[in-house]
Every structure is written in structure tokens, then in C-alpha cells.
């Protein structure tokens, strides 16, 4: 009955029924929201309107210091705080002023209490922003970044309602430009896109300068918009949500600053491996991760392992027991699973007994699963007394058989951060439920407490990214290994030919957010094309070849043709290819009976050969016994000696034979892990045509000395990378991405 009452209460605040039910699953959040709504109703003496309800929900879900609940509810109920910017400022204020009492005068000034923003002020601020960008607006029209206008108006009117600013921007832009025309609906030209990116870069630089951390060269992290720019300053850990202040906090932070020198931006970055489970850790995985980090262009200040600190972690576990905050438990694994489980019958065993039993665990006197060390706390998700240590008799890849008990991630992560004096510990969103144990454990031991920052995982459609599921794909033979180019692991993307710059650019464009993001693969591929277009030299290759004999070849021997490496910028050099009486073209570039609109080689329809300055015209079709076209006989003429042909095609002469691997999506559906979309599971969704191997492709001899991972644009075909399977006399190419062409181009 209580749940039904709460559901009715939450929907009356403006929450959808689905959102209300999700809230009820979080006991801490639902209790705080219920208390906030009850207090607001007492203040108002009437029902709560939706705007107030939205703010109350924002307060309940983001407030960690429950002592401030009544104080902030009173401001919301009385409409002194009535916008989202004011609420954000209020939450920030109580986070950064954890000690009593609250200076109400200072609080109200910092939160814009009493500040009234009139529609006239919004109109003037938007008009001023538009006037500053009027020339660019008139050129780019609706392709202009309207967010820039809203951002400038918000900078002037900090407490203005965001929706009112957006509506005003929309109205004034419509008045200036008129209704959208067909050209406004087309994809933004690349030049305008580059200008937008430069604007974004300047905006990011301005933010960093306002934070007094600007640098002449913006790193990737500084480019990433969103949450990354909200990091707390060194020593101000207590300003972050949920951070627990103890009597020792300020002194520990002071010591931390003395050790680190206050570094944050332009500071140092650790790469640490959580090697706490000897059954799952293999040295090859750590080596591969280090290789990928280096490939992406990053050099960690130091590479460390949780196992580096096993001795200290054990000593702290003993100290936890001494403080009555941990105990040895004999419940089995299946009894510990799930949430809201009953307390362990060994939770209150004497401290001295747990010390003796923990020492016995270390000495190998318990079998696996027979005993664990558990911490006395309840996590956000309702999980009670998480395990700190368990027994495992598997040798560790770094420490050998020195230990038979190993710490868990819940126990290890925050303490290793503390040892290394980390300022910002970055992890993905699924670890948010562990934040309370993170703070609790550091404070329980009276050690420096860093801050864990969670951000959304970046996922891609038509892919699986979990280690367990990729292992299944490898085990079933669906893919060759972790570096199979159809996967989206970093090592697979490298093998396929994705440049690291493209991956960094893609991440920068997506930005860092707390929300989980799932992107279409073609957006990543667009970043790949942008980089390869400027870095991959051109070559010519023929996948399905057709032999062409030029009966009136203009020379007694083959000609040397100079081909630009980058046709758009011939200052980047040329390479030489032979042009002989026998050439090979794509079989699809010839049709004996062409359909309407076909522009390449056909009877009565000559075609140009790229880079040669010659046009060929069909004279004879040679067929085999079964009627299949085996070769063509043509004549040639100078391209400037007659009418310009409708098309120019690529070709090869005296070519190298190579293998070409063409990749398509590994899965048929966008979300192969979604049971509603793929009821049979992700392994049932495999695309059986995801790999097509052309074993006898032909490529021009300019690539003869290419090495693994060298990249080329095969004209009219796409971008290709040399695969490590290549060996002397046989090159293997992976198609990285296709060319960006109109689907209807022939």
C-alpha cells in the first residue's frame, strides 16, 4: 500500500509513471523525494505544481548532504529558487560550504534569489548575440551553431530560464533569415563544418582560460566538452556530490596538495591495472592495453598495478577489522548474490575472532568460498556488506603464489587511488553504485580520499564490446581473435586501418557526458575518412578484373605514368606506374548491354583511363566457351583529340597480385544484445556475409614496398590498409572504409 501511495505522490510531482516506478526501486532516492515532497506540501498548503515537482526531484536525486534538505526545500516551495540554474547553484553552494551555519545572505546572492530576468532583458541579450554573429549567420543561415547564441545570452543572464532564451533565439533567427529553404535542410558543407569546429575550439579555450588553466595547445581532454570541464580543483574534493567530510578531511587534503603540488590540468596521469583476480588476468591483455594507449598517442606518467600494493592493502584490511568495520564471513557465494539480502549471521562476531580467522585465510587454512572478509556498509544499490577479500589458490601472473587471498575491486580501487594521490579517478557509469563505498572506505581508514568521476560508456550500434561476449565470438569461430577487423576493439580498429587521430577526433566530437551514448558506426567512419583523405596516398587496384588489349598502343614499349599521391595537392609528390598495351579494369566498368544512365565502357561509348591522358573505345568482345566475357579489344586516342568521355575509370597494368578482405557489419541488427530485437541472443544475429575475400585482386606496383598498417586510397574503391598477414610476394589489404560517394553515382 505504501508503494502505491508513493507512486501516486511521485506522479503528482510530474514524473511519468515509468520514471516514478524506477525511482521506487532506489530506496534512498525515493525516501528523500518523499520527504522533500511532504515538506513542500506543508509549506505550500496545496498541491505541488509540475515546475516545483521537477525541481524537488532534481534536489532529491542530486543532494548528498541530507542535513540541507529542509533548508533547500523551503527555498523551492517558496519559489525563491524556481529555475534549474538556481538549483544547480544552490547544490554547488552547499557542497562547497559543508560546515554550519549557512550564511543565508551569501547563499541567496550566489543562487540568484530575488533576481528577476524580464522578457525584455532576454530579448536584448539575444539581439546582441545575433548582432555579433550577423555576417556569419547570413552566410551559414540555419547551418550556424545556434547553441553559441544561447550560450552567449546565458553568460549575460545567468539566472534566465533556458527555454525562454531558446524560444527568443528561434524567434529572432526566424525574423532575420525567414523560413528554412531547401538548401538549409541539406547537409552542412565541409568548409562551414571546419569553421564550426574552430568556433568550438575557441569556446573550449575560453572556458579553460576562465578557469585559469588555459594552455596554448589544447589537449584532447580539454577539447572534450561536457563533464570533463567540471572537474573539481585540486584540494577541493569536498565540493563534489556525495563527498563525505570528516574531522580529518581538511588536514588530509592539505597534505595531499603538498605532495602533488596542486597539479590537475597539465598534471600527470597514471595507467593502473586492476589485477586483483588471478583467474582472469593474463599478461598479454595488459601488454595489449599498453600498446593501444601508446598507439592512441598517450604516454602515461606511470603504469602501475593493484598488485603493487598488496602488502599495504592487507595491512589496511587488518586495521578495518581492528576498528570493528570488517568481519570474516562464511556465507557462500550464492547467499551473497542480489540486493537487500539478510545480514550475515557472522556480522557481529568479536573483532579478535575475525583477526585470527583473517590470518588463517592468509595462511591457506580455508578452501575457496569457505570464508570472505566483508566490510560493514550498505551501498547505493542496496548491496549489503561488500566483500573485501576472498580465497583463491590460483597463482598470480605478477606475485606468483605469495598470496592465496586477493582483494576485490570494491576494496582496492579507492585505496590504490589514495596511495597514488590521485585527484580525479575516471571510470564508467556502472561504477557509480560503488561511489559510497569509495568514500566510506577511505574515511573509515582516515586516509586521503580522492574523487571518483563517472562518465557514460561510448557504445556503437551493430557491435558488442564486453570482454565476455567477444571471448564467445572467438571461441565459436565467428571472428578470428580480438583483432578481427569486424570487431570494435582498439586492436581490431588498428588492424582494419583506422588511424588513431580519427578515433581521438570522434571521441572529441561526441564529448564526455554522464549519459551512456550509443553512436552509429558511420559517424566514426566519417572521422576516419576525414583523416585518411589527407594522409592516405592514392593507388589503383582492381578487385574483379577484366583484361583489356589496346590494339593501337601508341608506343613500342610501356609508358611511365606519373600519378599524384594526392590529386588535390600535387606538392605532396607523385608515384610512377607502367601503362602497357594490356591493362586490367573492373569487370563492372564494362557492359555489353548497358542500362540507361550507364556512363562507362560500352559499345559506342568510350571511356577515359585515369591519369594517362588516353581514351579507349571498344572494338571487340572476346568470350569463352560458356559465353562469359574473357577480354576486350579496344583502340585508344589522346583525350584532347576528340569529344570528352562521359567517365574516367581506374586501371592497372603489369600489376601485383594481392588478397583483399572486404568487411561488412558483423551483426544484422542495431542492438544485437537486446532480447526484444534479437530474441535468440547475439550469436544468432551474426551476418554471414560480413567478410568477403578477393584472393586474386590486382594492385599497381607503386605499393610493392608497403608494410603492415600502411594505408592507401584505392581510387574509386575506398581506403585500404596493409594487413599483418602480408608476406614477401603476397600483400593482403583490409578495406578500412568505403569512399564517401553519392549512392546513385555510377
UniProtKB/TrEMBL annotation:
Pfam families hit by this protein: tRNA-synt_1c (PF00749), tRNA-synt_1c_C (PF03950), tRNA-synt_1c_C2 (PF20974), tRNA_synt_1c_R1 (PF04558), tRNA_synt_1c_R2 (PF04557)
Main location: cytoplasm
Protein name: Glutamine--tRNA ligase
Domain tRNA synthetases class I (E and Q) anti-codon binding: 648-723
Enzyme class, spelled out: ligase
Family according to the record: Belongs to the class-I aminoacyl-tRNA synthetase family.
Any single GO CC term annotated in Swiss-Prot or TrEMBL for this entry: aminoacyl-tRNA synthetase multienzyme complex
Protein's GO biological process: glutaminyl-tRNA aminoacylation
The protein's Enzyme Commission number: 6.1.1.18
Annotated Glutaminyl-tRNA synthetase class Ib non-specific RNA-binding domain residues: 7-162, 165-254
Protein localization: Cytoplasm, Cytosol
Keywords: Acetylation, Aminoacyl-tRNA synthetase, ATP-binding, Cytoplasm, Ligase, Nucleotide-binding, Phosphoprotein, Protein biosynthesis
Function: Glutamine--tRNA ligase. Plays a critical role in brain development.
Gene Ontology molecular function terms on file: ATP binding; glutamine-tRNA ligase activity
Subunit structure: Monomer. Part of a multisubunit complex that groups tRNA ligases for Arg (RARS1), Asp (DARS1), Gln (QARS1), Ile (IARS1), Leu (LARS1), Lys (KARS1), Met (MARS1) the bifunctional ligase for Glu and Pro (EPRS1) and the auxiliary subunits AIMP1/p43, AIMP2/p38 and EEF1E1/p18. Interacts with RARS1. Part of a complex composed of RARS1, QARS1 and AIMP1.
The reaction(s) this protein catalyses: tRNA(Gln) + L-glutamine + ATP = L-glutaminyl-tRNA(Gln) + AMP + diphosphate
Amino acid at each position: 500500500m505504501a508503494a502505491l501511495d508513493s507512486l501516486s505522490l511521485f506522479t503528482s510531482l510530474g514524473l511519468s509513471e515509468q520514471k516514478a516506478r524506477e525511482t521506487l526501486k532506489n530506496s534512498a532516492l525515493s525516501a528523500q523525494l518523499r520527504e522533500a515532497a511532504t515538506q513542500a506540501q506543508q509549506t505550500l498548503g496545496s498541491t505541488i505544481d509540475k515546475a516545483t515537482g521537477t525541481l524537488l526531484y532534481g534536489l532529491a536525486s542530486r543532494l548528498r548532504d541530507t542535513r540541507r534538505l529542509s533548508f533547500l526545500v523551503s527555498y523551492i516551495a517558496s519559489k525563491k529558487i524556481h529555475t534549474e540554474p538556481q538549483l544547480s547553484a544552490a547544490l554547488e553552494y552547499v557542497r562547497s560550504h559543508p560546515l554550519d551555519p549557512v550564511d543565508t545572505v551569501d547563499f541567496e546572492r550566489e543562487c540568484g534569489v530575488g533576481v528577476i530576468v524580464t522578457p525584455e532583458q532576454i530579448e536584448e541579450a539575444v539581439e546582441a548575440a545575433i548582432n555579433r554573429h550577423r555576417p556569419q549567420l547570413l552566410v551559414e543561415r540555419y547551418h550556424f551553431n545556434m547553441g553559441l547564441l544561447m550560450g552567449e545570452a546565458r553568460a549575460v543572464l545567468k539566472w534566465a530560464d533556458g527555454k525562454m532564451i531558446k524560444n527568443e533565439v528561434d524567434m529572432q533567427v526566424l525574423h532575420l533569415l525567414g523560413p528554412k529553404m531547401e538548401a538549409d535542410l541539406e547537409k552542412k558543407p565541409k568548409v562551414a563544418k571546419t569553421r564550426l569546429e574552430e568556433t568550438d575550439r575557441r569556446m573550449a579555450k575560453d572556458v579553460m582560460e576562465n578557469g585559469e588553466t588555459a594552455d596554448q595547445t589544447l589537449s584532447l581532454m580539454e577539447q572534450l566538452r561536457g563533464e570533463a570541464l567540471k572537474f573539481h580543483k585540486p584540494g577541493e574534493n569536498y565540493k563534489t556530490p556525495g563527498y563525505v567530510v570528516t574531522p580529518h578531511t581538511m588536514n588530509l587534503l592539505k597534505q595531499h596538495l603538498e605532495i602533488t603540488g596542486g597539479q590537475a590540468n597539465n598534471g600527470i596521469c597514471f595507467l593502473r591495472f586492476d589485477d586483483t583476480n588471478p583467474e582472469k588476468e593474463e599478461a598479454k591483455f595488459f601488454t595489449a592495453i599498453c600498446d593501444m594507449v601508446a598507439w592512441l598517442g598517450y604516454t602515461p606518467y606511470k603504469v602501475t598495478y593493484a598488485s603493487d600494493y598488496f602488502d599495504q592493502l592487507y595491512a589496511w584490511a587488518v586495521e578495518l577489522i581492528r576498528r570493528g568495520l570488517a568481519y570474516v564471513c562464511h556465507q557462500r557465494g550464492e547467499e551473497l548474490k542480489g540486493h537487500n539480502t539478510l545480514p550475515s549471521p557472522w556480522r557481529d562476531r568479536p573483532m579478535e575472532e575475525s583477526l585470527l580467522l583473517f590470518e588463517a585465510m592468509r595462511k591457506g587454512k580455508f578452501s575457496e568460498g569457505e570464508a570472505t572478509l566483508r566490510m560493514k556498509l550498505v551501498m547505493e544499490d542496496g548491496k549489503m556488506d561488500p566483500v573485501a577479500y576472498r580465497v583463491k589458490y590460483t597463482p598470480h601472473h605478477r606475485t606468483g603464489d605469495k598470496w592465496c587471498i586477493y582483494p576485490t575491486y570494491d576494496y582496492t580501487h579507492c585505496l590504490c587511488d589514495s596511495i597514488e594521490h590521485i585527484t580525479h579517478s575516471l571510470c564508467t557509469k556502472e561504477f557509480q553504485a560503488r561511489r559510497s563505498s569509495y568514500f566510506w572506505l577511505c574515511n573509515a581508514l582516515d586516509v586521503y580520499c580522492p574523487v571518483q568521476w563517472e562518465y557514460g560508456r561510448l557504445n556503437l550500434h551493430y557491435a558488442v564490446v564486453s570482454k565476455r561476449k567477444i571471448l564467445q565470438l572467438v571461441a565459436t569461430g565467428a571472428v578470428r581473435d580480438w583483432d578481427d577487423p569486424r570487431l570494435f576493439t582498439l586492436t581490431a580498429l588498428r588492424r582494419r586501418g583506422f588511424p588513431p587521430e580519427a578515433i581521438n577526433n570522434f571521441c572529441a566530437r561526441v564529448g564526455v557526458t554522464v549519459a551512456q551514448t550509443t553512436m552509429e558506426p558511420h559517424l566514426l567512419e566519417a572521422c576516419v575518412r576525414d583523416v585518411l583523405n589527407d594522409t592516405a596516398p592514392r593507388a589503383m587496384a582492381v578487385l574483379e578484373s577484366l583484361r583489356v588489349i589496346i590494339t593501337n598502343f601508341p608506343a613500342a614499349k610501356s609508358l611511365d605514368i606519373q600519378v599524384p599521391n594526392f590529386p588535390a595537392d600535387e606538392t605532396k609528390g607523385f608515384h610512377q606506374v607502367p601503362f602497357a598495351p594490356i591493362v586490367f579494369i573492373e569487370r563492372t566498368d564494362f557492359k555489353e548491354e548497358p542500362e540507361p544512365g550507364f556512363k562507362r565502357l560500352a559499345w559506342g561509348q568510350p571511356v577515359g583511363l585515369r591519369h594517362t591522358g588516353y581514351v579507349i573505345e571498344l572494338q571487340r568482345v572476346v568470350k569463352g566457351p560458356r559465353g562469359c566475357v574473357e577480354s576486350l579489344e579496344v583502340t585508344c586516342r589522346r583525350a584532347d583529340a576528340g569529344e570528352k568521355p562521359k567517365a574516367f575509370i581506374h586501371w592497372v597494368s603489369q600489376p601485383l597480385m594481392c588478397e583483399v578482405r572486404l568487411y561488412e557489419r558483423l551483426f544484422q541488427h542495431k542492438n544485437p544484445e537486446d532480447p526484444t530485437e534479437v530474441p535468440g541472443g547475439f550469436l544468432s544475429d551474426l551476418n554471414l556475409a560480413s567478410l568477403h575475400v578477393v584472393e586474386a585482386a590486382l594492385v599497381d606496383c607503386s605499393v610493392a614496398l608497403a608494410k603492415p598498417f600502411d594505408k592507401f586510397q584505392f581510387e574509386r574503391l575506398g581506403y585500404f590498409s596493409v594487413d599483418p598477414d602480408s608476406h614477401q610476394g603476397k600483400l593482403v589489404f583490409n578495406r578500412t572504409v568505403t569512399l564517401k560517394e553519392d549512392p546513385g553515382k555510377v
